[in-house]
Amino acid sequence: MNIDQSLIEKLINARSIVFFTGAGISAESGIPTFRGKDGIWNKLKPEELANFGAFMKNPDMVWEWYNHRKKIIHESQPNQGHITIAELQNFFDVTVVTQNIDNLHRRAGSKKIFELHGNIERNYCAECKKFYNEELDFSSGVPKCFCGGLIRPDVVWFGEFLPEAQFEGGEKAAKNSDIFFIVGTSAVVYPAAGLVSTAKQSGATLVEINIGETEISSSADYSFFGKAGSVLPKILHEYKSSVKQ
Ligand code: APR
User: Fold this and answer.
1) 56: Cβ contacts below 8 Å, ≥ 6 apart
2) Half-sphere exposure of 142 (CA within 13 A, CB side)
3) Which residues contact 190 (CB under 8 A, 6 or more apart)?
4) 143, 127 in Cβ contact below 8 A?
5) How many angstroms is it from 186 CA to the middle of ligand 1?
6) Is 117 in the active site?
7) C-beta of residue 18 within 8 angstroms of C-beta of residue 172
């Protein structure tokens, strides 16, 4: 895969870059994506697992599923995609705006991260919102808060608002970005996907990295159709060899 020299030129002149990421960047770490051929939502119903009503109706089932996902995430490692983004912090003001709840960007060493859909490592009481980030005890069923409320994972379910500070941080980063990378997302879930046009309208160069075409391919300035874990290291390599010259 060829990396356009004009993109490298833009990188050489860039100060702040944003990585807007989705489930695809964690696919090579063994974490299934949601849509596409082997997507989770082909087998399971988001309306039964990823919304508040379903949780209140059947908290055991919803927790069983999140504990299953947590196990997969704990058994996985950041891949070259996550690692390259962290390494780029040595050259640029890098902001990660992610839809992923898997904490892999943080584990790879990224510092400035906005988590639009929460983080599976955190939990809070559905009633009083008190946080419980320690390992939860499920020996007597779904754990409860001191107030009696059910404890839920700190993830954003369908129909719920995004955490305001995280979304505002992502929006500000998109508006200030020179280059806005869109990595491993189908860009169909809003308001997160709206950050793409926010960045475009603010004059950022849009660079898409995905194994296939998506909703935003037509508005991207550059599209690299390949795995994030191979394309991102290539871009970094090209950049490094260019700045050396
Ligand atoms: N490298 C790059 N892209 C990849 C790779 C890879 N190795 N593997 C898959 N992809 C692409 C797919 O082609 C697809 O476009 O990643 C995208 C994953 O899209 P989705 O499964 O829809 O995931 P995402 O966009 O993150 O979903 C958004 O939806 O279900 C909710 O809350 C959940 O945050 C999630 C949101």
Assistant:
1) 126, 150
2) 22
3) none
4) no
5) 5
6) yes
7) no
